[in-house]
Amino acid sequence: MSAPGRYSTQPPSRPWPVCATRHRAPSSCLLFTAYASLTPLLAFRMGTRVAGGLHFSDKSLVGVSRLLEDLQHLLEDKDSADIIFVIGREETHIAAHKLILKARCKSFVEASGGEVCVIPGSTVTPGSPHTTIRLPQYQPVIFRQVINYIYTGKVVMSDSGVFEVHGVAHDLGLEELCQHCEDHIATTMTPHNACTFLMAALKMEQRTGGSKGSRSFVDRCVAYIGENALECMQTSSFLNLSREALIRLISSDNLALEEEDVWRGVLNWAKYGAGVAQPTAHWTEEERLRVCQQLQGVINHVRLLLIDSQVFAEEVEPTGAVPMELSLERYRYAALPNKFKDNSTNEDKRLQPRVSLKLFAGSQILINEKMSLQRILNNWYGVNKQMWRLVYRASTHGYSADAFHRHCDGVAPTYTIVMGQHGEICGGFSDVPWGKTTMKGRYVASDKAFLFTLVNNQDIPPTKFPVIKKMFAICYHPDCGPIFGAGADLFIAGNCNQNLESYSNLPHSYDGENASCNTLMSDYNFTVLDYEVFSPYGK
Questions:
Q1: Which domain range does residue 320 map to?
Q2: For residue 172, which of 54, 235, 374, 440 sits 20 to 30 Å off, Cα-Cα?
């Protein structure tokens, strides 16, 4: 199909190639089997090593199932054991065999000078027929999982236990198990379980005395929740956070929320913990007291001075949770902000806005120094604090037209944000959705749609180009990506990262100051590096 002419109103007709996309469903648990690492002998006898793993022929698998059963029975055979682990404060006894441990665990392999092992925090008592190793810092149920992995290569990973398993695996020197724990966290963390992960990571940090590894996990969880704060605060796992976990979270400078929404999240947490469901105006005195008790020690970490004065008067002060002195300070700040700042130190966090508010959470285009462009899009939308959810990203979901329509059809309103190969950022807004039709292509009318440029090579400041031919605002075509205008003013082809079929024929159905076919992407035809589609939360 040749591109529609500058004055054509015919929708595109040529199908574009469709590429397959991969989907990976999240899972709350991970089950893996590491046959290859049972013993070096097994590695040599059962197969050949290929690209870091083992390849087994069908015949060589015959004995593996029985081998695992025998090793499981060996694990349960206390009579032949020569190592007794005494785990936790309960002093739970778990039997094991030194030969197996020495084949599998670095902490046993690297022992020297008559040492049995080099496990941090252990107390070793040599004896006959058993050597006793006391490990009071571990939970018995977690340690049993790790021992089972040592013998059989199998472990069931839960969200709540993954950090504890990682801690034991790290201390015993089980690098493969450590890697699987880290992979589990990276691939399964979602807004629904991120707060559960945070609680588990904090427990591990407390148990290990703040080890470097545990702090790293806590920081990773806080960073993820910070980037996805709005979604995470709407989950039951957020409401079940401990006081310490909540304080750790809201103390972060990188919580991607306005301070009003931080307060609302904290208040919801306090109401849940106090068993209060009614709005503030309907609280009894007893309910008010319970909520205030929940907020003790927490409210000081909310940056109340940054909360809008009307919100403070209508939502914060009526709870009775803010001390009178702090309320007076809040009103002094609202009346004389400059004088207040002059009398405060630069380190006063109460005056420092959260530094990474992400209105377009998950965007890989409007990040770092480009984050300020998010506010421009919101200004054009007309709601300054609107939060947007990522519906589709070509580099994640696939560049094919099929992938675009599978995720975006029927969704409105939307912002489509496009990045070119030379750093250009442009796109379009539509208040009407792309939708399936029996026709090859059809136009959808809108009087609110517009195109925009945010970054270009012509030194044009961020500019929007409103629709002027409203009947041709957007076009639906199953074999093409998003199409704006009958020109087409902005046309994104299928597999747009691999060809020069995308183009801009601006101005046609859209127009405005500095509008030209080179404004959006520096040239008429172009290749797309990536593009994203967002829709408002709550729509």
A1: 258-351
A2: 54
